[in-house]
Amino acid sequence: MKLWDGRFSKEMSDSTSEWAASIEFDKRLFREDIAGSIAHCRMLAKQEIISEKDAALIESGLREILDEIEAGEAEFTAATEDIHMSIETLLIERIGDAGKRLHTARSRNDQIATDIRLYLKEEILSAIGAVKKLCNTLLALSEEHTETVMPGYTHLQRAQPISLAFHLMAYFNMFSRDAERFWNCYERTDYMPLGSGALSGVNYDTDRAFLADELAFANICPNAMDAVSDRDFIIEYISSASICMMHLSRFCEELILWSSSEFAFIEQDDAYSTGSSIMPQKKNPDAAELIRGKTGRVYGDLITVLTLMKGLPLAYNKDMQEDKPPLFDAADTLKSCLVVFTDMLASVKIDKDRMAAAAKTGFMNATDAADYLVAKGVPFRECHEIIGKLVLCCIEKNTSIEDLPLSELQSFSDKFEEDIYERLEPLACMNAKRSEGSSAVDRVKEQIERAKKQLK
Ligand code: ARG
Questions:
Q1: What dotted CATH number matches 109-204+215-357?
Q2: CATH code, 366-424
Q3: How far is Cα 144 from Cα 31, in angstroms, rounded to an integer?
């Protein structure tokens, strides 16, 4: 028996019924579904569409069902198809005829759209909370490492010396934009579809403002057809989640590189690493690798929903039932990755000496050597060429610029003087970057201060 089988002369085949049911995955929306039903029932009573007596029975019945589901006592079967009809069936079994009035002036189409938006609003807030925690961890680490010099790379080749704090603050900015994106997405999710009916509204004098108030929606979907048809808010959320995962994944890639013996800038805590079943010496940065891997899953979820929606005529189509597994998967993956990543990052051991030693090699002071000559009046292009030749000579002699005696430096340019040596120190190169937003210790401290205010 289905709640809709009046017009059918045969039952749905068992195999199809089981296959088409969504209860296995949409049962996790039971809280939202019941909250939506309670608000709807109160509204129906207030508008005198159902009696106060029936409304009271419905509401208490729904609350009991909620408790039972929470306690793991309710049993769902594919026979009742989805979370909406499962709960409605339980309600009718429990309170009889009054329960049959709940679905007045409502469709599963506005119901599911409401459930997902309620779910997603919570999910977005918790993603923002998790991103903020990560940002706080980044700030705390940055404050400790404004003078921890390390190589900055372009093309993964040593480029210019920077501090670890500067590098971490780059990520801080990416993640704070992620939080902003989630917030923008929240604002567009905060529209209530309930009251839209199947597609064109309902034949009753409903009060949608009352419903929105009950369910804490800031806005009401202004067009019933749009309300039940679009899932752009899901796509927007998974897009934002994909971008955030991309940031996590890049960071993971760096942590993986940095923990290799080739870099050895950091050591991952045992708690976030695993061993090898065959090679006794191994300690693998599994958590970071797994986050990098799971990023692909979230991208897949995005493509799933985009593809799902691209050819659908308005309004509701059953295809849309398939939006939930990718949405849940993206939300669960994002949240767990943010939590694991934040804890992992906080526990990483940083080898400042290795970083500092690496910052001394690779001619990362070459730009500063050129700028030294610029300050003495040599045009930059000429300086670039002089230092290029100097670097080539050092490569041939297997030495570095600062290890050449002054007389030899002067054979490249007579503008070199004794003070060149202190200018070539990695920390001096870093601090010479005086532009706003640069890697200089003071500039990074400014960035940290601004970030702290922003986080509040
Ligand atoms: N289980 C459905 C979904 O998730 C609920 C809406 C069903 N509406 C319908 N007309 N079949 O999309």
A1: 1.20.200.10
A2: 1.10.40.30
A3: 44
